[in-house]
Amino acid sequence: MNRSASRWTNICIGVVASMLTLAWAAVGVGRVLASFDHNEQMYVSAGILVARGSQIYTDFAYLQTPLLPLLYGWLFRITESQDFLLVAKMVSVAAYLLAALVLGRITWRLCRSRTCSIAAAGLLLSSSLFGRVAAEASNYVLPLLAALLAIDLWLSGLAVIESRATSQTAARRGPWWRFFASGLFIGVAASLKSYYVLLAVAFGLTALSLRWPAPRHSLVWRLREVVAPHGVGLCTGLIPVAWYAWIDWDRFVFFNLEFHSLTTRWKLGPRSFQEIAIAKFEAFYAHFLAKPDSLALFVSLALIGWLGFQSLRNGRLSTDPIGRSALLLVAWLLAFGLLAALLPAPSYVQHYSLPSTLALVFFVVLMSTAPLSPSIPRAWPVVALLVITTAFRFDAMKAGSQGSWSPDRWASTRIAAEARLISDALPAIAHRPVIATLAPLHAWYAGATVPTEFASGPFMYRIAGLLSPQEQADYETTSARSLGELLDATRPDALYVGHEGDLDREFVGYAQARRMRPVRIGKRGILYVRPRRRAAEP
Asked: How does strand 517-521 pair with strand 525-529?
């Protein structure tokens, strides 16, 4: 009777985990398609320019490592779609769902519980920070997916070593391709977002400090069979970075390093290092530590850790070498993820998605490997945390489920509708219209072109005042001070404003001084059209 009741209890828990995971998947996909962030102005625009034959860094400003616009450009070419944002959003949808599947696979590898795996996937889908970055067509969710794939492949390689520990021939060969692929995905992550290269150090430290399943796995063997393939894979994944660094070193260094220093000065002003560090920790607390689902995760980590410690005191030590390896690896990864998040640079909520995701992975691995009491099924703590997270975020789930799957509410549909209004407001001219704007994606959708100085949207423009005139010319940008001079020289057919707040002020002043005709576009946008009789202009 007790066995039957326990069976039905486990079935009910599995049903609850499955329903919540599917609900969060549906809500998350709808949110990705419906939301829009100004970051996408740069990333999607860069992909459009690559698809049209422009060179990253040399022909236009792109302020990250180069892999994402190469991916977007390739997709835009093969799909031949003009709905650029929708194509990019589908990449984010795929990454969002695949990341959950990979975390479920990692969990299954460690605890062999279907319910636990489903609940772990649901936890990732319900994470406020992971959902926030997945909603953008930008370079945040893809490197997270790559990092999870690297963890899974690394553990897969360790599992092969463990299963073949008694075979001298198998041990000599080793599962090198899994470690190569693991390093490859870390290289891919760093080619999407530069600070992910820190995670490679965590893998190296883990390889050197593990207790391997056979004494013959010496340091030399580890270096040859594990570290070397992983390092070769890492270097392979970094080929796009090396290529662009080689062909245009000056611009590569500026757009990947110096730009971020200038952004710190732009956002935080002339503060001391200590003041910047304090501001960083305040943002870290507000954007990460104080979130309700993060607090629930920390409490769960503490509880599982305490239960595991009590089991260790009672002599119940886990003997699973793969579990211990996973725990060590993810602990190192979390340490380096926290280091990347706390570096003294401008703080945006997206920056905390890496430590948030790794903290969740750490919880799942700890729960799967800790020597808990036999009376506590492995799946129960994970399902409980999923239920608690859903309770904390029920309003977000409810809001995200209200019509976000309707194409009329998708961000790409809204931008396409605004682009049609822009096209209708432009006069008939022989050439492709040129629109100067800090929202270039709207101009691309309208069939117009955008001066290269505005290809990155607001991101270069807002720090360009910290550059000399020669540097502005070298890096294809302009500042508020030199905007009028640039617009007089290039004479665009229209200016489009309304999406970048105070940064649009100089555009509006220029348009009003030249008596350009304003046309309302949607709820926020204003298109200023240049008069046809240009001789009447001052």
From this structure: antiparallel
